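User: Hey, quick favor. My workstation is busy. Could you predict this chain's structure for me?
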Amino acid sequence: MVVLCIVYRVSLKRKIHLISVVYADTKGKQSSVMLFSTDVTLDASTICRYYTAYTARFQIEFVFRDAKQFTGLTHC
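Assistant: No problem, here it is.
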């Protein structure tokens, strides 16, 4: 199940697409993940594809890692 909404994120000072994805693994256990994008023109399937694509996933994680190191968030 996928739930999509546009919300205003105070910390980002902008609207974001917020997507909640609930899925069942191979054992039938339900899990959920929340994804978001600052590009409100993207549809839910595109955002999910960006997060789940093998290369895009690692690129996103490298950006997060570099951003945390640059801002000093790894030292607190």
